[in-house]
Amino acid sequence: MAEAKCPRKIQKRVCEDRISSLSNDLLIHILLHVPTKDAVATTLLSKRWRFVWTMLSRLTYRETKNKSDLQSKSVWWFLDETMRFHKAPLLELLHIQLGKLCPIDVDVVKWVAKALDRPLCWLFFELLWNSEPTKMPNSLYTCKTLSILTLSRKIIVDVPSSVSLPSLTELDLLSVVYKEEDSHVRLLSSCPVLKCLKVVRRNDVDDNVKTFSIKVPSLLSLTYKNTIFKRDEDDYTYVSLVIDTPALVYLDIFDYTGKSCSTEYMPCLADATVDVDFNPDGNFLSSLSRTEFMYLGYVDNTMVPLYNAINYSRLIESHIELNDIDLCESLVVLLSNCPKLKNFLVKCQYETDHFTLLWNQPSSVPKCLSSHLEIFEWDGYAGREDEKEFIRYILENSKCLKRAGILLNLTCNAEEKQKIIEELKSMHRVSTSELLFSALNVD
Question: Coiled coil where (predicted)?
Fold first, then answer.
């Protein structure tokens, strides 16, 4: 007779809240990896969690609601309620982005002022409300611990007479308004260790500055974007840029509406992006001779002689946008001044219809073609005679070429594209370079 089986003993499972037994330091570290709104929501979990979030060193408040949603509330209300309880002794980051839902009858910067009462390292403040630009607290301009500062949109930069930002290394001034012409000068002069500066000036913002002067001996990186060109409907006032940054390594200028750009010599400049429609001064052009990477936008017949008069002895990669039709021969002059060039990319921005230009064969071959050039690209090829002969010249003389890319002009029909591709493929290549096309899947 088989033995009767004993019933299996049922063990009662006990749910243990192990995470709540962790130390405050570990819980804070966990909450730093979730959005601030979710971190604050943990206060409802239990008494153990009630005040953990209040010790977070990084807080982010960003407008995410759509104004068309009538039930939505601005993030301002969440900011105003939670900051009352926050008590961390140090703030590594305070990120505030208030949008058009933000009420216009509140003190939007009061919590910034409170945060500045303790050590604050990084402040990002963007204001997009429907009211007028507002001032930041004066204590912002004397914060000893601030290392990164971003001010964006409806903010007035009103710099007091006493200003000192001894730790500030990165500064972004994005479409802000300056109280007076020299406000930005006083601000920049108070930043002795500033390394990175980004300035954006928009056409829809009258920022009260005609000459933007950047004199920062410590600056390594400068980005300047300007689309301002008028003060009112009847009076056009063009703005100017002055740069005095001897240690600068990286420069990015976009300025189609400025009057001039005056600079002091920048011997350390290694990476330059220049997209302007006015002629830079001699010191600026001399500084380009030291660059290793160079992007030139809006290059026309008036600018080519200036850029071609420079010897780019260290240049490795060059991008250039052509805005006039008769510049292919000038490109050979440019190449002759770039003995170490490895990558050369050309983009055509001009109309190509009804132009047939002659090509005069250069008497010598640039050194970079015979010993360095590895990548060549032509964006906007339409099959004009001078374009065709320039590309033929590149392929026949570039001994180190590894890849040549031709991006065909979109105005060409399929039959024209096929004909152009076959013509280009038949050209003699001195190297075993790969010839690529972007329009048709042709091997």
Answer: none
Q: Residue 429 belongs to what domain range?
A: 299-443
End-to-end CA distance of the chain: 82
Instruction: Kindly report which listed range (120-124, 196-200, 412-416) carries the lowest average pLDDT score.
Output: 412-416
Instruction: Name beta bridge partners: 93.
Output: 58, 122
Q: How far apart are CA 437 and CA 378, in angstroms?
A: 10
Q: H helices of 248-373, where?
A: 282-287, 304-308, 328-336, 367-371
Structural domain total, the chain: 1
pLDDT for residue 350: 67
Q: How many CB atoms lie within 10 A of CB 89?
A: 8
In contact, 130 and 101? CB cutoff 8 Å: no
pLDDT in tens, 173-228: 999 999 999 999 999 999 999 999 999 999 888 899 999 999 999 999 999 999 87
**Confidence band (pLDDT; 50, 70, 90) for 65?**
low
Say if 309 falls within a structural domain.
yes
Asked if residue 364 is part of any domain, the answer here is: yes
- DSSP H or E segment with residue 392: helix 385-397
- Give the separation between CA 356 and CA 337, rounded to whole angstroms: 27
Q: Please indicate whether residue 338 or residue 206 has the higher confidence score (pLDDT).
A: 338
> Residue 363: is it exposed, middle or buried by C-beta count within 10 angstroms (0-12/13-18/19+)?
exposed
